[in-house]
Amino acid sequence: MNPLVSxxxxxxxxxxxxSRPPVNALGQPLxxxxxxxxxxxxxxAAVHAIILQGAAGLFSAGADINExxxxxxxAPPSLxxxxxxxxxxxxxxxxxxxxTALGGxxxxxxxCGYRIASRDARLGLPEINLGLLxxxxxxxxxxxxxxxxxxLDLMISGQPIGTARALQLGLVDRVVAEPATLLEACxxxxxxxxxxxxxxxxxxxFARPGADLSTDFFPAYLASHEAxxxxxxxxxxxxxxxxxxxxxxxxxxxxREETLFKQAEASAQSTAxxxxxxxxxxxxxxxxxxxxxxxxxxxxxxxxxxxxxxxxIAMNFVNAGIPVILLEQxxxxxxxxxxxxxxxxEISVQRGKLDATQLEQRMQLxxxxxxxxxxxxxxxxxxxxxxxxxIKQQVFCTLDEVCxxxxxxxxxxxxxxxxxxxxVTRRPQDVVGTHFFSPANxxxxxxxxxxxxxxxxxxxxVLKLARRIGKVAVVSRICFGFIGNRMLExxxxxxxxxxxxxATPARVDGVLTGLGLNMGVxxxxxxxxxxVNFLVRDxxxxxxxxxxxxxxxxxxLYALGRFGQKTARGFYLYEGRQRQDDPEVIxxxxxxxxELHVPRRAIGEQEIHDRCLFMLINxxxxxxxxxxxxxxxxxDLVWINGYGFPAWLGGPxxxxxQLGLKPVLEGIRHYRDTLGDYGRMWFQPAPLLERLVAAGxxxxxxx
Length: 703
Hints:
Strand order of the largest sheet: 12-11-10-13-14-15-16-17
Structural class: alpha/beta
Number of domains: 3
Low-confidence stretches: none
Largest sheet: 8 strands, mixed
Helix content: 40-55%
Oligomer: single chain
Distance between the termini: 48 Å
CATH topology of the largest domain: 2-enoyl-CoA Hydratase, Chain A, domain 1
CATH architecture of the largest domain: Alpha-Beta Complex
Strand content: 5-15%
């Protein structure tokens, strides 16, 4: 018996069990074992039907991602060849789906003639999240099983669905209530098929998938989604593959799918997205902290501050079923905060993401208070008050007196020194930074700031808890702004300076959004608040006192009360969220440039790209060299999940590797030499970048 696929025969039914922990990834060894087991069952005269299941309660999470981009991806037997064997066997095959059937795992189930799932199973085709498309028949078999639009939605969203939806679509034939009864149900179903002499492969529900589509369906679908897809390749390839399913016979469609899959697999975008996938898994591994370390229990959370940030933070834990106590100083502020949380949930109900019962269940997990004594037994306390050191220290002095021993005390600071905050307590080992990004209930990033005294079990507990509440957690050491906001400073600085030198805000932002960023940096400043940007900068004035032009445009807008979207004026004019150019900003820039003796000129898109992006990249490399960030991949995760950098570019560090480290270094040196005093002040290459290029390295890593 092959250890990867067990083979048992009972009452004429062969039970094949995939057994490649932890997720039955369909790498070459498992594919070979499965093919051998299928061939054995096909030739075994005692076998009349086959049940295919996953051991340990999980069907298959799909292909082995480590194989993508290598020869192993299509090493024989390839997954398409194995699934072709499944479809050609003359005996009915029933996929017994428990746990998850994702990607290649669902494609395996689609190749089977019949599918039965336990109620708690999840099914999906998430390949698009890796810049790929289903490459083992999914784009061809799914539209023949369910309607074309539903098939496209499943593949292009990349989101798994539950069994109720799968049954409604016709993706599964039956759903059983309890996982323990799944195998029994499959045996009974197989016996019924044999008794009725049912075919091994039933006739497809949609033998001609495109028959009922309008002639312009695919062009119209592309037109309606193109703005959201931006420069992403994978959605377009999925659409092309499904169109082939509607135009070609199955065998020809499978060949077309293989060609499109290989195109996607070889693309820079898929390489970048696979980099992001592995970076997320690596980010949780902290040197010196073993996976077996005992964690602190977190059964109750307290949040200090019921403003927009505090309310959003509270919602994360409530959404995960963890009770939250929300503390405020004044009753009006507390009532307003609780009302805003309810309003957010009501919006989710209106959008169909929650029902009324779920809304009330979540609100019942939330309790407001005006008394610190009420949070004395909380396991985790997160401070989310105004970004001023003295205010945060005052809060932590109180927490030190009130909170029980062993409670984790966390600060939601975006830039301040966590060690200084911890220093006012008698338990600095229990203090950690938890920098949520606004809106905190939506943004995936959580910067976890490790203080010099933060205990390993505190760090490990917060990282585990971050996954529980659906966050991508990245550990940062202490510096002003940590990883994300420290890199934001030179990126934003160059955008401000470029407007001073003659570019318009729209032109600067247009270059960045043209690259695929969700927002340009100046639009982002308006959204976050010109005033917020000013106050963060004001707390660090000594660091840039040598540059008389530093952020002078931002300072001028702040002085005029142009705080961005909240005041309907910032770098742009706003009507609601609709923005338009404002000639007054150009006039302010011209006046400042004259006073500062900054020459104004026409500035090309390449210069805008290089000055903004190269300074962003340079600062990231410096952070890595200083040990603030553990890995280049961690930096990429911060900028993808916190600042809207395109995942399909892999984050700024991966993007730099694609551009080439030597051209990046040469570009920084070029602007250092051509921008006069300003260039000499700011365009200094990170020493690590110089060392990497000198050593002929193409990857960003510590040396």
